[in-house]
Design a protein that fits this description.
Layout lengths: L8 H4 L7 H16 L3 H12 L9 H4 L4 H10 L9 H11 L5 H18 L14 H11 L4 H12 L14 H4 L3
Helix pairs in contact: 2-3, 3-5, 5-7, 5-9, 6-7, 7-8, 7-9, 8-9
């Protein structure tokens, strides 16, 4: 997918379709936003990919797994805490407020990214008035509602992020390498 002149309309063109093609387009759009210096918007695009309606049989998943690793990488390599919003609060609120179609898996994935944010950027404040899930509860939800092996993919990203520290990085660094299967 070409990056020139890529904007939100690339995803709007899918209408209500959230299939493997949408997933791939959202990944590419997230990469484009990262390269343009928009870490927060890149996370939002990758979240849209994460919430795509996939059943695990899509060919795209062989080359590009769910973007937990790429999201961790962005959180680690964005040079400041200057996001359009606090990602810790955003994912916590998403997890608590998601309703409707596929609610359980979208909640589990929001909690999974929330845990990554907490680990990589522990100084970002959460919402003390809202509950927080334990890592065990998140893993159990991913195992119950997620794709085969999703909880293991997330856990490996969480384990890898335990040694990550927030640092400076070039905006031109590619998250697409993080989107490829290990």
């Amino acid at each position: 997918m070409a990056n020139e002149a890529m904007d939100y309309r690339v995803l709007e063109g899918f209408g209500s379709r959230r299939d493997g093609d949408f997933f791939h387009a959202a990944l590419c759009y997230g990469q484009h936003l990262w390269c343009c210096g928009h870490a927060g918007r890149a996370l939002l695009a990758l979240t849209r990919a994460l919430y795509a309606e996939l059943d695990g049989t899509e060919e795209i998943l062989k080359e590009h797994p769910l973007p937990y690793r790429a999201m961790s990488w962005i959180l680690q390599h964005h040079s400041s805490d200057d996001f359009p919003g606090n990602p810790r609060l955003s994912y916590q609120h998403q997890a608590m407020r998601i309703r409707g179609h596929r609610k359980e898996i979208r909640q589990a994935r929001a909690w999974a990214v929330w845990a990554l944010v907490c680990q990589i950027r522990p100084h970002l404040p959460g919402d003390a008035t809202m509950k927080e899930l334990s890592l065990e509860e998140i893993a159990a939800s991913l195992e119950t509602f997620g794709l085969p092996q999703e909880h293991q993919l997330w856990r490996s990203c969480l384990d890898a992020s335990s040694s990550m520290r927030v640092g400076l990085s070039s905006k031109s660094s590619s998250i697409m390498t993080m989107l490829h299967s290990p």
